[in-house]
From TrEMBL:
Pfam families hit by this protein: LRR_5
Repeat in keyword set: yes
Keywords, in A-Z order: Leucine-rich repeat, Repeat
Protein name (Swiss-Prot/TrEMBL): Uncharacterized protein
Length: 84
């Protein structure tokens, strides 16, 4: 488990690789507006919060294979997301 706001002070964070860490949920990434790449494959994430990536408007690469997700809510992304 990763503490909720562990990355909140790292505003310049662009790439985050959390693959194969037995995570059951994503850490809060609302303060990481410069995040372009997030890799969380090989974990045990079952669901995403409705607003998971709404502040991550620069996110262009999201790798979440081999998790337990059955659905990704459209509201998890900013309104202007066109291609995921």
């Amino acid at each position: 488990m990763i503490e909720d706001n562990v990355f909140s002070e790292v505003e310049s964070l662009e790439k985050l690789y959390l693959a194969s860490n037995s995570l059951t949920e994503l850490p809060h990434l609302h303060h990481n507006e410069n995040l372009t790449t997030l890799c969380t494959y090989g974990n045990q994430i079952k669901a995403l919060p409705n607003d998971a990536f709404t502040n991550n408007t620069k996110l262009i690469e999201l790798k979440m294979k081999k998790n337990l997700l059955t659905e990704i809510p459209r509201s998890a992304f900013a309104a202007d997301v066109s291609n995921f």
